[in-house]
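Sample 3 of the quickstart, ligand 2-acetamido-2-deoxy-beta-D-glucopyranose:
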Amino acid sequence: MARLVTTQLLLLLAWVIAWGAQPTASRARTELLDVCMDAKHHKEKPSPEDKLHEQCSPWKKKACCSTNTSQEAHKDISYLYRFNWDHCGKMEPACKRHFIQDTCLYECSPNLGPWIQQVDQSWRKERVLDVPLCKEDCQRWWEDCRTSHTCKSNWHKGWNWTSGFNQCPVGAACHPFHFYFPTPAALCEEIWSHSYKASNYSRGSGRCIQMWFDPAQGNPNEEVARFYAEAMSEAALHRAWPLLPSLVPLLLFLLS
Ligand SMILES: *[C@@H]1O[C@H](CO)[C@@H](O)[C@H](O)[C@H]1NC(C)=O
Ligand SMILES: *[C@@H]1O[C@H](CO)[C@@H](O)[C@H](O)[C@H]1NC(C)=O
Ligand SMILES: *[C@@H]1O[C@H](CO)[C@@H](O)[C@H](O)[C@H]1NC(C)=O
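Result:
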């Protein structure tokens, strides 16, 4: 009898810990490192891609994007999303290169696992939320886009797609970027519905994701993903402990 009770208790304990260790209710992911999100163009798993195009080439040792995706990432109204950067006149090249880099990071990075969330969208099953973007990367993006124009602050929704690419909806006037994005954080956070969070950590700190990096020194985002993956699983374990007192009545019942 005592042995049966012990077995039951152990099973229960295992269940409680497993339950508490789930990062969030909406995320079924257990692997946070070296993963690709389940989205429109991502490969299933990261692997080497020696022909990645220009700005995407830093990811060639380990990438979630194919060569084709990396080439398309550099085009206007590409087959990836038919997105028109020039919706308020021509986007300046100095600005556009940040959008290309943002696309490369999104499509190619195998280090975004800690921020992947499941979503109910027709075009993807997973997205990233609150990726801590290094402050210099966000600042530079904002500065280089000051002279370009746009008509919206959330570029995920609300466009007129009737012609096959996004156009400004009626009533959304074109203004310089800073009208819709008064600060660097407003740009990085709002443009893709909080895919990024503006971090106050700096490039090289190991605590924020770099959109730009020199692959000669390796990919700095590997360490960042490891750091946050560990922090998240520790937080999850701590969430399991408060559940233990609720086991006491059960324990008493089983022993009675
Ligand atoms: C990438 O693949 C798509 C779909 O197969 C194709 O339409 C497109 O032309 C390709 N792009 C390049 C640059 O090869
Ligand atoms: C959408 O764009 C098309 C073509 O440019 C235009 O004819 C139509 O009026 C626009 N519709 C809305 C709701 O903005
Ligand atoms: C970032 O900001 C938070 C609060 O705004 C502060 O507690 C933290 O020390 C800052 N970190 C760095 C690296 O500046």
